[in-house]
């Protein structure tokens, strides 16, 4: 496990206490729903006729659980075991509650701890549920999503190749992350949280080029929303913890939606 994954496993228990991650996840959901209005229109039939979704870097499931009512299934993948354990705990708690929606979450969301680098990884569900052999072809998906994950991944072409292989023909990408708009984008992370950060945001033109090189068509990478976020006034200011709303500096960070379709 990389140092970044160890960090995320260690932080999983307190992850949801940060209001920024909730705000960003809700904005990502709204961007996806705006891109795919059919998910809203067909929500009542999602459990039978909805999309099968692959989410990379699901974390504690903040986007997963928001999107789940709009789709048939979500395979939620993360390389940090602590994050997957947190999502499993949420699903178990939901299973203790009464109601159809709680039952559907149990049935539709499958958390998987794996560093996904191969569309045929045996950790993914089989295309034929009755075939339990490791050699069985893996399921293909209608939609692949990720949120605030791309800037932690060093090899974007390799990731896009994997996602291309995981999609059905006609399947789509909807990836969201903050934009690299110049040197100030580095301030998105406090210095003490730089472990596992590979990029200070995503360069829109470059990523669009990489998507096309991976085989995606109808590619569009552009800002969809902005989020105000508290930042350090100087590197290392928060090494002993963020101050409580006193003297905080804030910045606006643009977020990209990276869209594309597998022919």
TrEMBL record:
InterPro entries on file: SAM-dependent_MTases_sf (IPR029063)
Record has Lyase as a keyword: no
Pfam family, one: Methyltransf_23
Entry superkingdom: Eukaryota
Name assigned to this protein: S-adenosyl-L-methionine-dependent methyltransferase
PANTHER family, alphabetized: PUTATIVE (AFU_ORTHOLOGUE AFUA_2G14390)-RELATED (PTHR43861:SF3), TRANS-ACONITATE 2-METHYLTRANSFERASE-RELATED (PTHR43861)
Gene3D superfamilies documented for this protein: Vaccinia Virus protein VP39 (3.40.50.150)
Keywords carried by this UniProt record: Transferase
Region (Disordered): 1-21, 117-136
């Amino acid at each position: 496990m990389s140092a970044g994954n160890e960090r995320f496993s260690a932080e999983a228990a307190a992850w949801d206490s940060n209001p920024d991650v909730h705000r960003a996840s809700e904005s990502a959901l709204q961007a996806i729903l705006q891109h795919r209005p059919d998910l809203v229109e067909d929500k009542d039939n999602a459990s039978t006729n909805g999309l099968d979704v692959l989410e990379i870097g699901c974390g504690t499931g903040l986007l997963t659980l928001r999107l789940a009512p709009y789709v048939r299934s979500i395979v939620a993948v993360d390389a940090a075991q602590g994050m997957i354990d947190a999502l499993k705990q949420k699903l178990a708690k939901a299973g203790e509650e009464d109601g159809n929606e709680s039952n559907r979450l149990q049935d539709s969301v499958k958390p998987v701890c794996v560093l996904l680098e191969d569309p045929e990884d045996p950790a993914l569900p089989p295309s034929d549920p009755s075939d339990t052999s490791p050699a069985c072809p893996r399921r293909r998906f209608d939609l692949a999503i990720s949120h605030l994950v791309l800037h932690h991944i060093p090899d974007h072409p390799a990731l896009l190749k994997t996602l291309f292989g995981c999609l059905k023909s006609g399947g789509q990408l909807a990836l969201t992350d903050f934009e690299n708009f110049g040197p100030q984008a580095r301030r998105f992370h406090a210095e003490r949280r730089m472990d596992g950060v590979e990029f200070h945001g995503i360069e829109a033109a470059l990523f669009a080029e990489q998507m096309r090189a991976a085989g995606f068509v109808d590619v569009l990478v552009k800002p969809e929303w902005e989020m105000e976020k508290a930042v350090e006034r100087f590197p290392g200011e928060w090494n002993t913890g963020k101050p409580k709303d006193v003297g905080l500096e804030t910045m606006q960070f643009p977020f990209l939606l990276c869209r594309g379709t597998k022919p």
